[in-house]
Description:
The chain has strands at about 15-20, 25-30, 35-40, 65-70, 75-80, 85-90, 100-105, 110-115, 120, 140-145, 150-155, 160-165, 175, 180-190, 190-195, 200-205, 210, 250-255, 260-265, 270-275, 280-285, 300-310, 315, 325, 335-340, 340-345, 345-350, 355-365, 370-375, 400-405, 410-420, 440-445, 450-455, 465, 470-475, 485-495. It is an all-beta fold. Among the domains are: about 15-90, no CATH class; about 175-205, no CATH class; about 320-350, no CATH class; about 355-495, Sandwich (Jelly Rolls), CATH 2.60.120.
Amino acid sequence: MAIKHHSNETFLDSNKLMFGTGEDLQMLHDGSNSYIHHNGTGSLYMKADTGNIQIINYTNDADIVLQSDNGSGGVTPYLTIDGGLGYTTVQKRMQLQDSVGLYLGTSTGDLIYHNGSNTFWTHQVGDLTIETNQDNGDIIFKSDDGSGGTAEYFRVDGGDESVVFSKTPYIPQYILHVGDGDTYFGFATDDTFRVGVGGTQRLNIATGIELTGNTTLNGNLTVTSGTSGDATLIISADTDNSEEGDSPRLWFKADGDITEGAIQHNDNTFDFISNVSSSGGFRFLTGTTNNTGTTDPSTGATERMSIANTGTVTVAGALQPNTIELGHASDTTIARSAAGKVTIEGAPIQTTQIVTSHHNMSLDGGSSTVDYYFPINSLADGSSSSLYYTRVLPAYDGKIVKMLFRASNVMGSSCTIYMSRRAHDGTSTSHQTSSFQASETFDGSVKSTVVVPCGVGGSNAADWVFEEGDQLGFSLVKNTTATNVDLTVTIVYEYTIS
């Protein structure tokens, strides 16, 4: 039955307008709020075959709230069209089905969707900005950690104002400077790292390190081969052998920008250069200290030779070259010809002075135990008249090298020669009769010349030394009772000229 009303119908508060046999749909106003209440069979549909369905709330700052069951017997808001805030808020998770996209923007804006396997964010117009306005906040990027969880891979750190990588970033080729496409660093191919500046490759690291152009290193440079192999530093120039004037050079700067020294190869000569206004030159040091780490290698070393900036060469130890050229001329040389012998332009120089004394004497005594003092005389054995002593005052420090004897008759197989020495700064002038300075025993049983080594090759060589001004004397003990021996003696002295 259809009822037509041509005027308003008024229902008092809490009186319901009900539809359906079971009063399934009810409409009422309870004095505070109005209700459309579906409380029966089926669902509540709002349907329009033509036109739009508009739900309008004209109340200032009021909301349109869509509520549904909360899963626990009550209801809860799911979506709120907030008239006070001026936008829509969502109170429960909103889930878009596979391949159903969320469009942002009026027309061709962003599209975000999941196709069942992957998620896509497609940006269409303008720039895409990801921004956090949290003071000191970060933008954190996470992904699977390979163990069933997730891990941070990198973050944009607002507190440190930096991008922090927590995992290894992989670069397919090059990273370029903003607005400068020919300044870059990266990987040209596998196992090759390069740096380019201004369109020119400056650094190439592959099996070694190649640097191109002027390079400044601050700090220490260490070249090492590790635990085995040689470590070689090569400085190369004129690699195509076309420019003889191009030189490999190592320069040393100090005191600001002063190039005080250099090691360089210059047109097939090798130059060591020290060139500074004062206190320049070269020092050569050696030592036996095992310095390690960053300890100065000069620690424990001693200067052995120096070359002053004036050209003066100072040698602290023994200088042992074969030849020294003077004035950079090969025809003016000082050379070593043999042990202890030097030549200048081939002419020998005696570095020690040899002096001899010669004695002709007559040995008449028959004793084989007493000393006969040079010059041996015809007095009786043991005569000690000081008038007959031979005394020698050497002009320089030195030693007795040897003595030579030639006798007219044999003197025995075990003769002894003694040297008496009275110190130049002492007061005694008499010949020693015991505790002699030096002695040597020799075989005088032949009439031929006998050479007796003393300070060189003698059994007591170290004793045959003397100092300038010492008083020396010599005596002989023969090993026979024979008399009438005419004796010729030569004593060889070696002076050290200072």
